[in-house]
Amino acid sequence: MITILSGSNRNDNHTLKFAQLAKQLLQKSTKEEVVLVDMAALASWSVTGDMYGNSSQPQVIKQLQDEIIIPSQKFWFFVPEYNGSYPGIVKLVLDAISVRDSKESFQNKKAIVTGVASGRAGNLRGMDHLADVLNHLGMFVHPNKLPISSIYKYMDDNKMVVGEEIKELLQKQISQLLNFN
Asked: pTM of the predicted model, to two decimals?
């Protein structure tokens, strides 16, 4: 299983649109199951001290970990730029998951990272911050982190991601992800 994580929990976020396109392209390139996790779908989960309890974790976190994170061997993180880094929801979810079965969730698994930003840097710093956390958890992060800058140039009037240029960029990362052993 390959899991794509869309790292914004804002409603109607643009990061999800890039992750959805990536999922469509990835499904055409592999026979492996591809799952998309939308952080906005975790909205019912509230941040409490219970998220760090082995037995008191919210069911949505346990289910995410048991049904998606543990079975996945490869991950593709799409992270928007929030205050010069990646969104706190991504860190919170990683922290919560690391409490229970951390080794089975992260150890020796592969990850590739794509930054999404309306500015010109494509979340370069945030991708490095995330890569450091993933490495600490025992994951191998592909060195080619893709910064997607000035995202609106890839979106049409309906805010849908379009164009051959972006598809080619994502296709290159797909190839790297599938060949990352």
From this structure: 0.93
Nearest to 131 by CA among 118, 117, 147: 147
Question: Which pLDDT belongs to residue 159?
Answer: 87
Strands (E), the chain: 2-6, 34-38, 74-80, 110-116, 140-141, 146-148
Q: What is the mean pLDDT of each run of 10 residues along the chain (181 residues)?
A: 95 93 97 95 68 72 93 97 92 90 95 94 94 98 95 89 93 96 90
| Residue 9, CB-side half-sphere exposure with 13 Å CA sphere | 15
Residue 50: the pLDDT is 64
Question: 10 Å Cβ neighbour count for 10?
Answer: 15
Q: Is 137 helix (H, G, I), strand (E, B) or coil?
A: coil
Residues contacting 80, CB < 8 A, separation 6+: 7, 8, 13, 14, 15, 86, 87, 115, 116, 117, 123, 126
> What is the three-class DSSP state of 86?
coil
Q: How many helices (H) and strands (E) does the chain have?
A: 6, 6
- CA-to-CA distance for 25 and 176, rounded, in angstroms? 13
